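Question (not urgent): is this output format expected?
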Amino acid sequence: MSAAVLPALTPYLATAGIGWLYYRRIRRSFGRQLWQPKRTIARLVLVSLVAASLVCAAVFLPHVGAGIAVGAVLGAALGVLALKHTRAQATDGKRYYTPNPWIGGGLTLLLLGRLAWRWSQGALTGSSAQMGQQVSPLTLGIAATLIAYSLVYSSGLLLRMRKLAPERIAGD
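Got this back:
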């Protein structure tokens, strides 16, 4: 591949990569999932860092603080609700969980819908000088919803799966 072709393919490769990430996210919302504690802990660490950046955004950009607060409360409530509707089981020495597809699917649609809206309005194509003017309380509220949901759900699932049949499961 020549050096001139790669820059022309970059937008397509980036779009394909983002599409793959969304596919993986959507796939985790449906059907029985193998419990992977190391992956969950890594996700919790990463999501905690993003949550800290949202708190900083709420402090330094006061016009988005209310959106972030409301989103965080809604996300935490959805995380608790999702935990109540998640089934956990141990089979053949392995732990599995089955998430509620409606909650995960709804949050995925919310994220994709907001991204599509922002993209259609040209917000994702602006220069970095305009980015400060494009900060939306709704967008950061949705981000806070997703982050709070992920923190509550992953933490609760981590605790729940550790209690699941500890005498039959080795290696945790």
